[in-house]
Design goal:
Blueprint: E1 24-28, E2 31-34, E3 39-42, H1 45-48, H2 57-69, H3 81-94, E4 97-101, H4 104-119, E5 123-127, H5 136-140, H6 145-148, E6 158-161, H7 166-172, E7 178-183, E8 186-187, E9 193-194, H8 197-210, E10 213-217, E11 241-244, E12 255-259, H9 261-264, H10 280-293, H11 296-319, E13 323-329, E14 332-337, H12 342-350, E15 353-354, E16 356-357, E17 362-365, H13 373-387
Parallel strand pairs: 3-15, 5-6, 5-7, 7-10, 10-11
Antiparallel strand pairs: 1-2, 2-3, 4-12, 8-9, 11-12, 13-14, 14-17, 16-17
Amino acid sequence: MTLPLTTTDATALLGVYARVGPTFVAGEGSELIAEDGARYLDFVAGIAVNALGYNSPVIRDAVLRALDSGLIHVSNLYRTEAGERLAAELTKSFGGQVFFCNSGAEANEGAFKFARKWSKKTEIVAFSGSFHGRLFASLAATDRPDYRRPFEPLLAGVQIVPLDDVEAATRAITKERTAAVIIEPVQGEGGVRPVAPDFLAFLREHCDATGAALIFDEVQCGLGRTGTLFASEASDVVPDMVTLAKPLGGGLPMGAILVSDAIAAALAPGDHATTFGGGPLVATVALEVLRTISDPDFLAAVRAKGDWLGARLNRLASSTRRVREARGRGLMWGLELNELAAPVVAAARERHLLILTAGPTVIRIVPPLTITHEELERGVTILEEVLA
């Protein structure tokens, strides 16, 4: 493989990211390739986006097929086959209808609007440790005060209550004011924390009693990441809306809101819109990604790899005082450290392993779902060496 030399100037990019490490110019499988040819085993996957790894034939073939059609964009003023087929595939599992957008934050913003229109109420309830995006409503529902403070006032009427606290949630979710309750079945940015099924079941029951829409944010934990197509399957709780994004477009910008029939019936033309959402190119790719991930054998392989990874990480946690706890499901795991995580991330990168944080003291591991057992073994061995 011939690798091009890069001569670009990174200072031309707005400084809202603290980019680190080498300049990557190619990818293959579960590895990223730097401009000097060095290979890095990737336990980040573009922040849980690249579920099928790099240079996936599924994605490449879908892109080429979409390009051959000559349709990249036609707007949502007209029908296209790709978007309608993708929506039909998504509703096989959830029912209802689908709205396509471009990102997870957009999906959550749209879900809040839909809940307000349907319920004729205004307030939103979210939970400690939550991360739902960086737009004005989604940021208001995100439990990161440092992220929110420079941009306040944000959307009014958003409460963040303690996770797993039934009494606090009961007080916050009211028949008079609450339009929606939003929760990640497995929190991502908040430290990779699976939410107890009993708490999700309580939220379903209480939302039914108060007429609030229950929204599951599966932007990071959905679409196979936890070993089932939807992370909520582990709880048997069915929400009113599910928001999706990250892996859906195979790396292309793609988000979706799955909407129950009852909420869909409250919406009319003009209530919401997007210029690019669900365009023919991204929908063609997303359909193939969805079909690949939803295959029962594929999901079974994710669960098997996740079981192995969880056992190995729990063993690591019990063998060093530097690790407080391992937690997660499928191929979404966090290591809670007794120290800051950023130096460990940097040390792993020096050994050509890419990991990331989920808060100040948590290492997050979200590799491609196609990663092999041998690659998992190699990566965990490096992590053990770094923490030894």
